[in-house]
User: Which sequence fits this backbone?
């Protein structure tokens, strides 16, 4: 698992690089629960007092829990293309980890075709076209 | 306390309430807070110098004076030596300040407390604090995902469409109702009727939500004077409105609904989801503390950040089963004159949000309703009112008042 150096936080990798990128979350060494972004110092399960948390790659695919299509530019520090184009944000539920992860929907996706329940997979792209900074996004999986 | 255990929570009196009208006035937040405080003190029939404890709701948009709102108000009213605290819990700040004041009174540490919240808000979307803060989820959600507040409201709204078959028109009917409720409210910012057609003709902000389905941000101030029951009686308040419950609960792990400003939910892979999701738990804790249930309510003031979210709250506070909120609305149950009016003040639809003042304003409205002083929007024979909202990062906020 090689962290992508363009990950958003300097000290902590959020996703792996390569053709099949994965989000990097944490799994508690004691109770096994997951978290994203990775927890580093204390297990989030209230019935577990472990401080040993392993970073693990998370499932690449999940299903849309809900989504929104934004028609106005978000204020800074959000990045927005000029001229502005509507963009979608999807909340996608990972089967194995049983958690919902937010992300922008990948560039070029058919926003009008988005549906709750559809399968999505992780992609890594510049936050907006031309940006230096990359981020994970959700890309519809062709049926 | 254990769930199901017998609770015996003492009550405090709401001796006075006051507000500075909501608007986009562009003045110093402390000015609204002081106006609201003076109004509440006059309503209570006491002097500022009678106040032993002042609790402020913090604003994060007005520099250091906002961070220490309690002392900012105390100085503006004139240093009196009163004890002070300031609370920040985002939209739940006001309820937390009320809870701190109530606790001091119930602990016997004071008899008279003043709770004040006010805000001056910028135009447009609420944005995170400045600087490059890559360990702050509120900063990261904007930077990485472009997830504005309405983005989260839209996620919840679309779930209602998917699960219950609700439509934009259903939500627009919430706006029409609240706009009508607020027409005669002197503290409301918007006092104008609207129609389903007008709502559906407004621009899409975060699909499926349009501009008129989302509340705006406002300037405003609200204050309450809380006292011990003995103090209230000694000041001639024979049957004052009392606070029967304040719920400031946090979520229970794993929180399986994506909440502002998080980028992910908790994982339910190991721990089973709790019996009650967060919004349900906020109401349940309030009911338990008050020893009351939804069947006892005369009215409710709920946080309609979006019109669809008002329908979520109907279900969260137990007015109906999941998925039946739109029917309750269309049947007129939650309209003034109906079985259980919701947001008789006009709600956020008519006010817009002044974050640290809003939960206090909800209590002001309930107090006026229970006293029979809500001119032009009075709920008949009101005896029990509930307020509810939640602050981002997991702050519950619900107050039940009775008379």
Assistant:
């Amino acid at each position: 698992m090689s962290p992508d150096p363009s990950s958003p936080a300097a000290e902590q990798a959020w996703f792996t690089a390569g053709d099949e990128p994965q989000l990097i979350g944490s799994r508690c060494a004691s109770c096994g629960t997951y978290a994203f972004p990775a927890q580093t110092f204390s297990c989030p399960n209230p019935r577990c007092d472990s401080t040993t948390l392993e970073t693990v790659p998370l499932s690449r695919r999940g299903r849309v829990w809900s989504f929104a299509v934004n028609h106005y530019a978000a204020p800074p520090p959000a990045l927005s293309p000029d001229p502005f184009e509507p963009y979608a944000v999807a909340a996608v539920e990972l089967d194995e980890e049983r958690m919902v992860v937010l992300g922008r929907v990948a560039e070029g996706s058919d926003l009008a075709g988005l549906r709750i329940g559809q399968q999505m997979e992780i992609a890594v792209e510049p936050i907006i076209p031309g940006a230096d900074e990359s981020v994970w996004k959700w890309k519809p999986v062709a049926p | 306390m254990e769930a199901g255990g017998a609770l015996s929570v003492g009550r405090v009196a709401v001796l006075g309430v006051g507000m500075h009208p909501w608007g986009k006035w562009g003045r110093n937040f402390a000015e609204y807070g002081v106006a609201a405080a003076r109004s509440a003190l006059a309503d209570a029939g006491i002097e500022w110098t009678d106040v032993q404890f002042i609790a402020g709701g913090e604003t994060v948009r007005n520099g250091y004076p906002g961070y220490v709102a309690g002392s900012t108000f105390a100085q503006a009213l004139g240093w009196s030596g009163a004890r002070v605290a300031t609370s920040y819990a985002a939209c739940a700040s006001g309820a937390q300040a009320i809870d701190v004041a109530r606790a001091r009174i119930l602990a016997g540490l004071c008899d008279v407390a003043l709770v004040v919240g006010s805000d001056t808000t910028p135009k447009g979307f609420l944005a995170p604090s400045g600087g490059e803060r890559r360990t702050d989820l509120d900063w990261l959600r904007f930077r990485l995902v472009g997830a504005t507040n309405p983005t989260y409201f839209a996620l919840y709204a679309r779930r209602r469409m998917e699960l219950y078959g609700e439509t934009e028109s259903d939500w627009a009917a919430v706006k029409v109702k609240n706009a009508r409720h607020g027409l005669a409210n002197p503290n409301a910012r918007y006092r104008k009727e609207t129609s389903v057609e007008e709502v559906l003709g407004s621009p899409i902000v975060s699909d499926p939500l349009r501009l008129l389905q989302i509340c705006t941000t406002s300037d405003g101030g609200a204050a309450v004077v809380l006292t011990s029951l003995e103090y209230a009686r000694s000041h001639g308040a024979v049957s004052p409105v009392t606070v029967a419950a304040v719920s400031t609960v946090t979520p229970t792990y794993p929180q399986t609904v994506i909440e502002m400003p998080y980028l992910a939910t908790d994982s339910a892979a190991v721990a089973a989801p709790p019996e009650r999701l967060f919004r349900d738990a906020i109401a349940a804790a309030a009911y338990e503390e008050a020893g009351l249930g939804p069947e006892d309510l005369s009215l409710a003031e709920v946080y309609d950040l979006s019109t669809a979210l008002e329908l979520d709250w109907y279900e969260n506070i137990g007015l109906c089963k999941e998925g039946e909120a739109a029917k309750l609305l269309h049947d007129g149950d939650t309209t003034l004159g109906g079985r259980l009016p919701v947001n008789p003040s006009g709600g956020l639809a008519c006010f817009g949000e002044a974050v640290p003042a809003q939960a206090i304003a909800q209590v002001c409205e309930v107090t006026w309703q229970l006293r029979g002083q809500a001119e032009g929007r009075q709920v008949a024979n009101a005896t029990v009112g509930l307020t509810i909202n939640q602050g981002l990062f997991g702050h519950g906020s619900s107050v039940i008042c009775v008379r």
